[in-house]
Amino acid sequence: MATTDFIAAIELSSSKISGIAGKKNSDGSIQVLAYSREDAASFIHKGVIYNIDKTAQALTSIINKLESQLNNSVAKVYVGISGQSLRTVRNVVSRELEEEGIISQELVDGICDENLEIPLVDMNVLDVAPQEYKIDNNLQADPVGVAGKHITGQFLNIIARSSLKKNLEHSFEQARIEIADLYIAPVALANAVLTESEMRSGCALVDFGAETTTISIYKNNILRFLSVLPLGGSSITHDITTLQMEEEEAEQLKVKYGDVLYEEEDTETPATCALEDGRNIELGALNNIIEARVEEILANVWNQLQLSGYEDKLLSGVILTGGGANLKNLEEAFRKRSKTDKIKTAKFVHQTIHGYNDVLKRDSMQNTLLGLLIAGNDNCCLLEVKQPRPNISENINTATPVDMFDNDEALKAQEAAARAAKAQRDKEEKERKELERKEKEDRKKKKKEGPGWFEKTFNKLSNEIFSDDDMQ
Asked: pLDDT of 265-280, one tens digit each?
C-alpha cells in the first residue's frame, strides 16, 4: 500500500549519504518507513562535496530506494549542512536613540539586517542564533516593547565557506531533488539529543564523526558556540593502517579491540589479535596508536571549550555522541584531559523510534539523520492534484438546453454582435454570387446573337485588304 504522508530527510556526512522517511505519531514517537544509504568517502571529504556528479548520482539512488520502499514519490527532502569550515562568529550591533522610547519591531529588524552585513571573505552566513539584547544596562531576550535609550544586539552568526552551500545546492539541482529546508546539522542533532534542562543549565555536545568532530555549546537554551575540528574516527583508522593492512580491516580492529586507556596484563606473553593475512598484532601496539590520536582529538576539543569562554559554566557537563563516541573508555580519557567529572554519552535521540531499530539505534551513528527527520514538519510526499469530475448524471434527463449567458449581459451583447456580423458577411457573399451569375448569363446571350454591325463591317474590310490576290 502506498504511503502518502511522510517526512523525508537526507544527511551528507564524510563517510556516507543517508536518507530516511518517516512520520510523527500522535504520542510523539517516530515511525520510520524507509531508510537508505550510499558510501560517500570517495567524493565527500570532511563534510565538503568535491564531486558534484557523483554526489548527484548517490542522491538519485537514495531517493529511488526510498520511493521503492514507500511505494510513492518523494516531492522534497529536508537536508542537513555541515563541514569542516562550519563555525560561529560573534557580532554586536548598537543603536543610540535620540531620547528614551519604546523599542519597536522595526528597530529590532533593522539591527538584525545590519548584523547580516558583517564583512566576510569567501564565507556565507548560513544562519543566525540571536543572543540577548542589551537595553541600557539590562539584558532582554525579547526587546520589543521595552523602554530604553540605548540598545545593543548580540548575535552568533553560523558561517561556512561559500562553496559548502553552493556545491550542496548544485548537487541537489543536478539530481532534480527539491530541498524543503536546509538545517544546520549540528543544531538539528542537539535538538534531538539534548534535553531542555541540559541546554538551559549549560552543556557541550561533542559529536565524534568520521572525519570531523563538532563541538556545540548551549547555555540558557541558546547556542553559544559551534566549531568543527578536521579530525575524527577515520583519522584513527588511517593511523592503524600503518601496521600494513587495509582500512576496512583497520576499522574492524578499532571497533573490536580499541581501548583508549588500554593496560597490558601481567602475563608472560602479550595479548594479540589475528589479521586476515595470518599475522598477529599485539593489542598494546594497536591501542598505543589509538590512544595517541584520541589524545590529540580530546586536547583540541578541550581547547575549543576554553576558547568559547564557557568551560566553567557547563553545569550539565559534556555529552558525547557519534560513532567515535563508542570507543572504550573514551569518557574516562576525557575526564583526565579536561578535569571535568560530568561527562556522559548520548547514544539515542529522545523520541521513541519504531522501525529499522537495528540500523538506526546502532552506535549513535544515525542521530543526526534522525534529528533532521524530527526537525521536518511538511509532508514530503508528491501528491497529484486531481481536477474534480463534472456530475454528468444530473443532466442526463434534461430536456431543455441551459443558456450559459443567461446571467451575463456583457457576454450576451458580444454574442449578439457576433451574430450580426455573420449575417452581414452572409448577405454580402450572396450579393457577390448573384452579380457573377448575371454577368455570366449576359456573356452567353451575346455569344448566341452573333457579331454586331461594327464587327461585321470591320471583318469585311479586313478580308478585302488582306485577300490572297493582293498578297501575290
From this structure: 877 788 999 999 899 9
Residues 448 and 81: their CA atoms lie apart, in Å, by 100
Distance CA 43, CA 269 (A): 44
Is-above-0.85 flag for pTM?
no
Residue among 119, 202, 122, 198 at smallest CA distance from 164: 122
Give the separation between CA 244 and CA 286, rounded to whole angstroms.
Answer: 12
All three cell numbers of 78, joined, read 529536508
Give the pLDDT score at 350.
87
Considering the chain, tell me which residue range(s) the CATH 3.30.1490.110 domain(s) occupy. Answer: 87-159
- Bridge partners, 219 (sequence order): 222
Residues of the chain with CATH 3.30.420.40: 196-345
Res. 470 pLDDT band, cuts 50 70 90: very low
Specify the CATH number of the domain 196-345.
3.30.420.40
3-class state of residue 262 by DSSP: coil
What single string gives the DSSP state of each residue in 173-227? HHTT-EEEEEEEHHHHHHHHHS-HHHHHH-EEEEEE-SS-EEEEEEETTEEEEEE
Q: Are the C-beta atoms of 77 and 178 separated by less than 8 Å?
A: yes
CATH topology of domain 87-159: Dna Ligase; domain 1 (3.30.1490)
Return the H-helix or E-strand segment holding 114.
Answer: helix 105-115
Give the per-residue pLDDT at 92. 94
Residue-wise DSSP of 217-258: EEETTEEEEEEEES--HHHHHHHHGGGT--HHHHHHHHHHH-
CA dist 26 and 114 (Å) reads 41
Q: What is the pLDDT of residues 394-423, one digit of tens each?
A: 444 444 444 544 555 655 666 676 677 767
